[in-house]
């Protein structure tokens, strides 16, 4: 059952929003120590995440969702008057990976109404981004056909005619959202010629459907790095899993351990099913000569889901075809979930709590992406990060726009 709800961005409770997620499958853990609590601020710098009696500071935007910046304010706060203005990049940090096992699942045929080049045939390595871009455009066209309310946002997009470049390469960004019941807070399809194809979808607060991150970067050494992830909408302490797949219990986290465990079980039941887990494992095992991406920032470990694929592989025709197939199937899973009424929250507190969590999550996701894109694009990293991240205030959609 779908319904219309106006989500107020002011006066929402800043508790109940819990931190974020971990690196790869259960048996894989993120390396490095995590600070559990310091002055009421949890791991990743987010407030009220694990402290039963948090320090409250109404002037701290991490604890006041109404203070979440608009997209324009967000750019100004980083000295970026426009999305196309570069700012200095921080030290690079690479996301963390994980191995898996067996051959990829076939994907549904893409729609024919795609105004982009035909993908290169398997076995060709002449232009992998040409093929990845065509496949990604087909994905977006298919999603837009299924969700008619998904509207372009020209003011937040980069058209080819705008002449935006990233690292000297032409770049385009197709930004869209679908307010209200369609519940897509932000969709960004980014393509950087010769270098990257990235599709990110953030859902609005009306459902618990995972966010989708689907990104492939072609590196200077003729390798390509794939990140494919369904990111949970409730904190499950995924970054705290140990090498044996075990999570901290109440002896370490107190009563919150039961909440986190419940969130993990809910995600597994609805989204991390045996079928999806098998798909992710077989996909990761299908790439020729792949290896896990070896390091990740703290923000990346906190925002990564439990099923994420993060690998680097040689640029080969077979790998390009396998990456296209994997990304198309992942987008199809996301679209199926987005169209199912069963994932809608009940009115009231569950939506408010989702809003608070998502608003904090989006800020951590920005920090994680900034590390990745600063490493990939140097001085242009912040520009691409801000543009792809979209408006950070969740009130932008879900009835708030």
From TrEMBL:
Residues 1-19 form the signal peptide. It comes from the Eukaryota. Keywords: Signal. This is Uncharacterized protein.
